[in-house]
Amino acid sequence: MLKSLLSAIGISLLIQCAAVAQTIPPTVISVDLKQDQGPLPPIWAWFGYDEPNYTYMKDGKKLLTELSQLSPVPVNVRVHSLLVTGDGEAALKWGSTNAYTEDKNGNPVYDWTIVDRIFDTFIQRGMRPIAQIGFMPEALSSHPQPYRHHWKPGDDYNDIYTGWAYPPNDYKKWSELVYQWVKHSVSRYGQAEVEKWYWELWNEPNIGYWKGTTEEYIKLYDYTADAVKRALPTAKIGGPEVTGPNWDVSAKFFRTFLDHVVSGKNYVTGQTGTPLDFITFHAKGNPKVVDGHVRMDMGAQLRDIDRGFAIVASYPTLKKLPIIIGESDPEGCAACSEDLHPQNAYRNGTMYSSYTAASFARKYDLAKAHGVNLAGAVTWAFEFEDQAWFRGFRDLATNGVDKPVLNVFRMFGKMGGNRVAATRPTGESTLGYDYARLRDSSVRAEPDVNALATHTNKSASVLVWHYHDDNLPGPAAPVTVQISGVPGKQARLTHYRVDQQSSNAYEAWKRMGSPKAPTPTQIAELEQAGQLQTVGKSQLVTVDKNGRLSLPFTLPRQGVSLLSLTWD
Fold first, then answer.
1. For tag attachment on the chain, is the N or C end more exposed, with fewer CB atoms within 10 Å?
2. Domains in the chain, start-ordered, CATH in brackets?
3. Is 525 an annotated catalytic residue?
4. pLDDT in tens, 99-119
């Protein structure tokens, strides 16, 4: 029986490999530096995580330092549970600060010690907090018990929604808490600094994170916005951080909230409408295990973004407000490890990095198509302290060692200036994927080999990816990037790469034998392997008399290249 089963598995794998072992026709990508398409906002310089107390732990501080260094612009950081009651102990999908308690007479007691420790860690690195106002302190919860959860991977996800998720028992006390927090922040960091922050209310109130009704969330928003603006009239306040706007029930929540912003009766002032300085929602993909391998579904994530943008664009007075996709990821649970959730086995290797490159490019395209103002897309991934090496969480580093996906963000950080045209010429046997095709069908036919390009007066950058939804082996793609509009006779080329061999600590760890407790020497090797690496050394390339140059190379499946050109 076992022999027959193994034989069947072997035949299945042979069939799968044969399906992807076809040769890929040459791909030509034309980049015209004179076709300026305007600024490329750094929507990638936004990160977030559930566990706020990881912020000031050893590996948390190390990773935050790296994130702050990868970007020439300030990195924004969003974390949950900044008002949750507790002792500050870190745990999966849990965090606390004890910012608010009450004395025996029911009088408020404010303690900003842990909140300050978290925000100090950001500010010291030149980062900016997305100050998430939530969740409900135990003394204010209308249903406080049970309050603390002890969720672990494998438990029912709904077990996390305890007393912190309920509406307040006193909206005025809640409002005063928010007011005191904003006033304290201004006193500690200065008005000019706090004016740059994004203050937002709650997280995913259309699912279990909010145990109240839609109308109760709207009421809470009115009290929150009023408190923020009383404390600092120039502060930015936004919401509602709904998840899955492509679900009809989520779209209904989203529209009900925006209707209230525009024309509803304010619970605090009695006037029409409520302050809204930016708009937030979440978008997630949906990977599955198909025939023994992981199959991603980028289309599901892009459909969320598409519907969210369409909803915002339907409100003329709100259309130009900044939009922050508060969580924008391949799926929904960062702390659901690969060992218990096999569909998440994309996270350690290069599939996560190529998915990231391909999906971020399409976020720009969707925003342009809808005419909306996309300011940021938060990657909900950080690190998990004291876990097994490469356990398969959705994180950027493991035990202080960077994963391949982090190097794609390092590539983004090297792309300065305005976006320029990067196209695949008409007449090829296949014109590849645009945002509409990928949104509608994801990447289930030929691979997505495409590019995103930028330029400044003295540089150009071309990010090229070779992505497919199916995590299966396949041939490399022969690519030629043809760049026109380059001044001078020479340019210096540096070719950065993320693939199986480059910028990949996970493959280095496997080559070591996947040690459960790497030695100090091995850790040093892994740290080096986790940094962004180049294909050979930088070199001078010749520009022809018409200002053109041609750069041919081969890009492995799930690989990402950044071609960086500079000139005098």
1. N
2. 22-37+416-566 (2.60.40.1500), 41-413 (3.20.20.80)
3. no
4. 999 999 999 999 999 999 999
